[in-house]
Fold this protein.
Amino acid sequence: MGSSAPVLGCRAMDAATFRRLGHRLVDWVADYRETLEARPVMSPSKPGEIRRRFPTSPPREGGRMDEAVAQLDTHVMPGITHWNHPSFFAYFPSNTTYASILADIVASGLGVQGMSWQTSPAATEVEEVTMDWLRQIVGLSTAFTGVVHDTASTATLCALLCAREKVSGFAQNGKGLQSGEAPLVVYASDQGHSSIEKAALLAGFGKDHLRLIATDDDHALRLDLLERAVAKDLAAGLRPCALVAAIGTTGTTAVDPLVGMADVAARHGLWLHVDAALAGTAMALPECRYLWEGVERADSVVFNPHKWMGVGFDFSAYYVRDPEHLIRVMSTNPSYLRTAHDSEVRNFRDWHIQLGRRFRSLKLWFFLVDEGVDALETRLRRDLENAQWLKVQVDTAAGWERLAPVPLQTVCVRHVPKEIAHDEAALATHNLAIARRVNESGNAYLTPSVLKGKQMLRLSIGSATTERRHVEALWSVLNAAAASAT
Amino acid sequence: MGSSAPVLGCRAMDAATFRRLGHRLVDWVADYRETLEARPVMSPSKPGEIRRRFPTSPPREGGRMDEAVAQLDTHVMPGITHWNHPSFFAYFPSNTTYASILADIVASGLGVQGMSWQTSPAATEVEEVTMDWLRQIVGLSTAFTGVVHDTASTATLCALLCAREKVSGFAQNGKGLQSGEAPLVVYASDQGHSSIEKAALLAGFGKDHLRLIATDDDHALRLDLLERAVAKDLAAGLRPCALVAAIGTTGTTAVDPLVGMADVAARHGLWLHVDAALAGTAMALPECRYLWEGVERADSVVFNPHKWMGVGFDFSAYYVRDPEHLIRVMSTNPSYLRTAHDSEVRNFRDWHIQLGRRFRSLKLWFFLVDEGVDALETRLRRDLENAQWLKVQVDTAAGWERLAPVPLQTVCVRHVPKEIAHDEAALATHNLAIARRVNESGNAYLTPSVLKGKQMLRLSIGSATTERRHVEALWSVLNAAAASAT
């Protein structure tokens, strides 16, 4: 403590500099968005190229913000893969709308912690309001209460933890999973997202107690195999615990048979968790809601407004039927977190794993008042129609094969030249070559993936900027790549 | 899919509107920061007051951003507790500097996912560079590799999961914690953060296998009791697994005896996790590093640059000795996430629970080039000296009692009027009344908390805007509240 250095106080940037640089960066973002289309979608950077532009030790002296802002263009942009590009067809649409960028300026500027109601009542109550709006938008009943999570991975982990504690009678307050009692078992489709397996392993169930049920030709979970697996586990003295239904799998947007799964869950006392990470957004369209018929019987539902909808990452919507159970699993109640109003309000710190929380609901609020539900519906219908258009092209073109139904906005295809039509290894090499060619061209970005042994090209439509002409261009690029890769 | 509505495409805000509103919100943030001091620190809002200002259903028509921006002042601000206020002495300093707000504009504006290297190489490599800078700043050796987590709660959960898998020989790939083998046990101080208990319960250990070791008069873990607990568990056939050392507990910034704990950990093969959530920032000061002597023997270390340091929430720094182990615990490797460069690069999705990731390292970069390490050191020394000044006032004033040493920036006190000096219940009522009076006055915000049965007032100094005069004012406010509460 005995420093002899003069105490200068905080050498923070002053407000005038913040205003100047803030305006400059807002314009920089707008310039970026306006020139997105001209950029190569996937970064052409090689490993280490970005890292080498930076010094290896931190600056002793500050005041270099102008330099850093300039380095965004020289040092950072070459290493950016453009997720909001109209020709981004990889992974999932991750729309970060202008409105949600504006909301983030406010959230960061306020810099509040919404862990408890008292630590900023608005953070809790704007979340209550907007998550209820979102519940109405996707057609869930008032039986569900929503909370903002960061990602579906953590929400699904929470769901499995809630399942574990419900079926074990709150074992965490005793011996946890180390009681020596009959093991708990988790069930999901073998096409479910990797986060389900990850959650089951992190929650301590063990891979031996995770059943990844095989799927039908449409890549949806086979109910007969699920029933058989549950029966076998019961006969072996195990305790079926949780069932995860994928409404729109990551690989192909396959839709698990939710009504039948809800029957199985009800019969055996399983926690039913619905993972609609991408597809949940489509439920804004009444004509799509048949896809999750049965959702009202779920114990928990997660979907990601930070994907197709337009709320910037990270923003995952987690809806539960029994908030008291969630709180009982997630809360600790140390004295330094107790406040006077605890009995009258929600303290969202007890609704997930993290304690601290950003004011994320501002993003949902700004997004919805800017876009409005009508325009959201119109945009989603545009994307569904674009996917149907592409499906027709694939189905009617020689040499192309479609590998899955197209209930939503993802089209899974491969190119099958006659000469190698029966040689899976050659087809894999050929299609990987197409993917590499397309991605390295910078003209479009897609995800190569393997579906039941078949190398496919996964084309995920739904960037807010993607118009029909971009999907048409994708189809041309694919055909050119296929021709030159042959 | 058969909508007859005209397809309008995306009715997103146009770039010109974004520029206009973006500039306006940057100025709004600057105005807010410049008027912070005049605002009541704790929101005076009553439960439901904010919620009632909003409609109960979402807008069908969009285009209402100007209205929403205006509602920030009328609907949201009354419900804000001002975490960056110079008289914020509650919980922990949560400095969101101008530089990190600017970085968030860029991160949101780019809207990239840094889950894999290829999905934006810059997101991975800027993180590698800046997390290595941060490692140097706090004096950790090159034996540690850093990754950005969101919060210490999730980082500590990761640490306990890594411990669980190390000691169990990767049980997650078999029966998980449900093998019936000897239970694994976690050890920490009874003054450790609630997130440690939460993590142990979520990881499946069970409360019966969590030992919260009692502390000494300085509120640091008692090594003799730790050794006794480990010996007792070994004798009972249990398996000691993980040991969490708190460097700066949440309650009082007590410092656990890390060297002795490292000895115990080494002797019994325990995973040693260091939770320096708040205090890690102080390690930027060479004169503070004695506080975590022994840290080089830890398996994992977490601290929060989003607290005292100035990187806006959420930004937790997690350092590990063995990244391969972390990856083995956290990774799943589905085909849709594999990319061509996987063997040459880091895919940070495999370094934590979440899959998706914001470009958070921009915040650390901008913060460091703006403030510089020299000015950071000066500011931290200012805060330490302010805490020492307050400590002296408390120690030399009649009627006040200090309940813990002050190694850092937190001062734990209570007011003890002679008439009720031996009546704990009356003292609790009296000090809670002081806390309520101070907090409701809006002049300062502090956290009432209970320390070993004693109701205390926890005064946490370190907002970037807090000068000596604010601490002097706090001391006056406390004395006035104590006098009028008597």
Notes: Confidence is low (pLDDT under 50) at residues 1-9 of chain B. Chain B has 13 helices and twelve strands.
